[in-house]
Amino acid sequence: MKKTDRQLGYILLLQGGKTLTAEKISQHFEVCKRTVYRDIQAISEAGVPIISLPGKGYQIMDGYYLPPVTFTPDEATALYIASQFARQQTDASIRADLNSVMDKIESILPEETHAYLARLKSAIHLSIPNRSHSTSETRYLVTIKEAIVRRQLLRLRYHAATTDQTTDRAVEPMWLLYYGGTWHMIGYCRLRNDLRDFRVDRIKHIMPSSETFTLREQYKLEDYIKQQRFEGMHEVKVRFTALAANYARRWFHWGTTKEVQDGDHVIVTFLVDEIDYLWRWLISFGTDAEVLSPISLREKIAEEACKIASMYSMKIAKAV
Q1: What is the Cα–Cα distance from 106 to 120, expressed in whole angstroms?
Q2: Residues 249 and 285: beta-carbon distance below 8 Å
Q3: Alpha-carbon radius of gyration of the chain
Q4: pLDDT (tens digit, 9 = 90+) per residue, 236-285?
Q5: Do 173 and 148 meet the contact criterion of CB atoms below 8 Å apart?
Q6: How wide is the angle at C-alpha 215 spanned by C-alphas 51 and 144, nearest 5°?
Q7: Which of 51, 92, 279, 301 has the highest count of CB atoms within 10 angstroms of its CB?
């Protein structure tokens, strides 16, 4: 990123009364703190009223705003493509907001950039596999988002797939994560007295409470994501043909941890949060995939393969 673009980014980031430390700014723009100090000084010398608050960070004096920002053709294109990806991977409520945002952006584009984007839109199509979101799921997402902002306790009825049980919970909603094609609400469950991951499509009923809560400062989103990446995960080792391995890599949510070439095959090691459902996916590869470990998964696939073979053998025998 050019220095001038980065310094403009500082101003945009600090507008609206935000207070950020040099550490936060350096992380956002991926530069060292010394660079941040130099940039802040240059911006101040250019007449932008940046205030340094001891122990808190930097902020721009109230009432200062940059004039409306325009977009280059490349920036407008990047926003359009990003919005198309998001439209196909999120729920109806967010798609509506995306449409509104893009309408506003396109309304302020210079005529030449607007024409450029219009021509490009007619030539770009993104075909991304996505899952449909039910009406109730979309409605629940709106409720969850509001509760997170307002620090509002949620009372919900939740069906856990692992135990096949439905329980009533009181949850302090903290974060919304989107992974594996579904939305997940991460919150402090008062029934379990710990953080829990609730898949939104498994929530049977949800109701915001009049009770509010104080955010539990000991929990950090970044720490949670790092922890969940490996904690409670199961290691699976599969021997794929080269072609099957190329396809399988696209499926791994957390990525592979190790790949070893084995002649014309590839032994792939990866992590999953649940073993039970995995056999259905792996058995679809037929002889192009052989589970090496864990043994329980290998035995499960062998058992199901025998059932399939038996079913078809009986039908063939009857046909003859």
Answers
A1: 13
A2: no
A3: 26
A4: 899 999 889 888 877 765 556 788 999 899 998 887 777 777 888 899 99
A5: yes
A6: 105
A7: 279
